[in-house]
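Open question from group meeting: does this chain pack into something compact, or does most of it stay loose? Before anyone orders reagents, we agreed to write out a predicted structure and look at it together. Recording both the input and the output here so the notebook holds the full record.
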Amino acid sequence: MSTCILRAPVSKGFSLQFATTFAKKTSCYGVQRLGSTAAPQPQVCIVGGGPAGFYTAQHLLRSHKGVQVDVFEKLPVPFGLVRFGVAPDHPEVKNVINTFTQTARQDRCGFYGNVTVGSDVTVEELKQAYHAVILSYGAEGSRSLGIPGEELSGVHSAKDFVGWYNGVPGNKDLKPDLSAETAVILGQGNVALDVARILLSPLELLKKTDITAGSLEAITDSRVRRVLIVGRRGPLQVACTIKELREMINLPGTQPALDPRDFQGLREAVQDIPRPRKRLTELLMKAALEKAAGKEAEREWSLRFLRSPTHILPSPDRSRAAGIRLAVTRLEGSGEHARAVLTGEVEEVECGLIVSSIGYQSLPIDPAVPFDLRQAIIPNRMGRVQQAPGLYCSGWVKRGPAGVIATTMNDSFDTACSVLEDMESGQLDTSTPRAGACMLQALLKQRGVTPVSFAGWEKIDAVETARGREVGKPREKLVDVRDMLKVASL
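Structure tokens returned:
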């Protein structure tokens, strides 16, 4: 980690120009003293401390023995989607944090949490401080349903709901209504199944995970006994993986309530489709037959196919959601490219909780960065941001919110390769020294922003794991930024 420490006097007129001058005088320009004949150290900044950011940093540090990489994250804690997106009952997926920790502890890697790029510091200021800036900040928005009643209480995006039980500070006060027997989840991907599983899991299982204390308390009092997982298309188009589906089918105390009629004629059709899809469909058909055979349980879930939401139905006083109207669809075409079209039929479902799991969405970070609003990505070629020399991107903001962590790893390595190729070819000029973190530390200090180092995160980590041990959990997450900052400063 960078050991550059600034002790500059802060004045009202402190500016980027002052920071640059101060960096020169304190000999922290590219870690080379001015006048040295040695080549300047390449300075690279990564915006976003999630999987995309750390995988990009890992590849740069492994492949270039002289590069300095600084990771900026808006929250005081690192690891992004691994900490805040992976389901609490999937601890094995979080083991990748060990690899990220090894990267962050390297001498040539700095971590600066609690820094919001776009407000605390601009992308243009980063470009002046670093030779290359890589945007890896993920997808912080959610796709809108675009239907009447979406604004009612009781309707939540999956991003916010997952953030609530995983400890995202901005979602700690969500307070979802779990008082009704039926919940509806819109979307049939892995995140939708994660939400359903958390809603229906036995408490003795959840108590052994790192689910937050507040959400565990709410789920303890939950009256939800039935979860409908709704999709516009049919069984051959569900977006979940067989692992997630098998977990739902085998969830203790819970039964799948699948309609065998949804699978009529599919036994022959699956013979000619790719093996992963074939296995998934066969597992669905098997679960449907078991339900028909009379398997019973206290709680149930179902995949409701060929349904598209049209209205959120309000309670009599219009203060909250009380149901949802679904249009019945049929398919035109076949396979992955089949399209759902309306039939004119509708049905209504009474429910108190509606979770929209139709996709995450990246958002613009700074007016200086090109952004494709339609695709919700930064336009790029192999991670090189178009018409913005020195600017790169990786992860979901580069290619959209799809794939698993391994997909993000490969994508991030590709972006790192583009940066390294540009350094080698001279397209990215690293011959002129840049001040890197020295300049940014000075700017942030003047603006009253206190970055959290990786050592500060490790203090938070120690407190969380200690609190977890007291209650038999792997950790008890801090969910308030003020508490995080207080612990990090100890």
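Observations to bring back to the group:
The first strand starts at residue 43 and ends at 47.
The mean pLDDT is 91.
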